[in-house]
Design a protein that fits this description.
The complex is a heterodimer of chains A (245) and B (177). With 245 residues, chain A is an alpha+beta fold. Chain A contains nine helices and seven strands. In chain A, 54% of the residues lie in helices and 11% in strands. By secondary structure, chain B is an alpha+beta fold. The chains are: A alpha+beta (245), B alpha+beta (177).
Chain lengths: 245, 177
């Protein structure tokens, strides 16, 4: 059940009946009615009494309940009033037949749903192998500032070799911080090199590196290695740590 | 390949895999000429497990094969792994899924016509659970999205393929005078 607290108005989402068809079906069964010849007056009265009950109990029910209610009332009124002249509209009998057809189809799927429930229950007791979590190297050594500087030098050295072009650059540490966090979004870690990939000037590299150091200082991210002098991965700190700053 | 060897390789693969393996895949890995001999190997394996009253079974599920535990030992498995069993689909979800299973590909509007109630939230849950997928768009004005069941749907209910869904014909109309 869903609880919705709106304006102190306490409402319970109605799950006893899946929808108006479910309620109608319930009424047909309860009163042992012939589905092909539903007494409209009786079922309308029953149906509306349920709607009233929902209201009284302050149950939140779907608008579709009212659509069927209005159809029923319409049918009832058409049946009570003698038709003076031939009407172009559909006859109440047509509605009745359509309603019966819909109820029968709905009922079928309700029973299929029950059959699926049985299969679900059976299958729940049969276990296959769990997905294998790939064995990972244990990145548990915190990288020191010197490790980070070494790694940075390697990245910067690579740049020396590739020729770079001068482009309009974003040189604010804040922006680089945002970009690093963006890279880490939805990931547990990224490789140190990833942070610098695609950066084509030394100044940009330096600002990015400063941003990384700042994030490490703030303990928003951690730089870790599997072994001394090994590759460095940048791990995201857990959410609660980030919140504390 | 020698029968016995093929059977053993297939057993290794089925044991190792965390999802059902199709005949094609098994034939490809074992470098078998045709999937028929692989199927025979699986059948033999299946019989062996049954004959020696194993706690495991070879099941034909979701258009493939998998080695699984037998249901009568579920309580023991649960003791080892408690979190596996809590999830169950809600009744609206099952109802919606039943309709999709028979009428796929089907639009949301068509589902709602049958259920008589809004279904968007339920559909989203089914998509999240990966038992239903968006399979395309219907070629009518507005080109609405159509939904279909997935392989995960078959696996979830322990079905070999779609021919195993509960038959609609066997279902009788509601009781009445």
């Amino acid at each position: 059940m869903d609880y919705e607290g709106q304006d102190m108005d306490y409402r319970i989402r109605l799950e006893v009946f899946e929808g108006p068809l479910d309620l109608l079906l319930h009424l047909v069964k309860k009163n042992e009615l012939d589905i092909f010849n539903i007494p409209i007056a009786q079922i309308t009265a029953d149906y509306l009494s349920y709607i009233k009950l929902f209201r009284k109990l302050n149950l939140d029910f779907a608008g579709e309940f009212l659509v069927i209610a209005s159809t029923l009332i319409y049918l009832k009124s058409r049946m009570l009033l003698p038709s003076v002249e031939p009407v172009e509209e559909e006859e109440p009998e047509d509605y009745q037949a359509e309603l019966a057809a819909r109820l029968i189809e709905y009922q079928k799927f309700k029973e299929v749903a029950n059959a699926f429930r049985e299969k679900e229950t059976m299958q729940r007791d049969i276990y296959g192998r769990l997905p294998i979590i790939p064995e990972e190297e244990d990145y548990s050594i915190e990288a020191t500032l010197f490790d980070l500087l070494d790694a940075f030098q390697r990245v910067a050295f690579r740049l020396e070799e590739e020729v770079r072009e001068i482009i309009q650059e974003d040189l604010r540490v804040e922006d680089r911080i945002k970009e690093i966090l963006e890279l880490l979004k939805n990931k547990r870690f990224i490789n140190f090199e990833t942070i610098f990939s695609g950066q084509s000037s030394k100044r940009l590299l330096i600002v990015t590196f400063l941003a990384l150091l700042e994030l490490i200082r703030l303990r928003v991210v951690f730089a870790r290695q599997a072994r001394p002098f090994g590759d460095i991965r940048i791990y995201k700190a857990r959410e609660e740590l980030v919140a504390r700053g | 390949m020698e029968r016995e060897k093929l059977k053993n390789i297939v057993e290794c693969l089925l044991f190792f895999s965390d999802k059902p393996l199709g005949l094609d895949k098994l034939a490809e890995i074992t470098e078998s000429e045709n999937s028929l001999e692989v199927r025979e190997a699986i059948e033999e394996l299946k019989r062996e497990y049954e004959l020696r009253n194993s706690g495991l079974q070879v099941v034909n599920i979701a258009q493939g094969y998998q080695i699984c535990t037998r249901s009568e030992f579920s309580s023991w498995v649960k003791k080892l792994h408690r979190s596996q069993t809590t999830f169950q689909l809600s009744l609206p979800a099952l109802e919606t899924l039943s309709i999709i299973a028979y009428k796929q590909p089907i639009t949301r509007g068509e589902i709602e016509k049958i259920r008589g109630v809004d279904t968007s939230w339920v559909l989203r849950k089914l998509l999240d659970k990966k038992v239903v997928k968006i399979s395309g768009r219907k070629k009518v004005p507005g080109r609405p999205i159509v939904y279909a069941t997935t392989n995960e749907f078959l696996r979830y209910f322990g079905l070999k393929d779609l021919s195993e869904i509960p038959s609609l014909d066997e279902i009788k109309p509601p009781v009445g005078g």
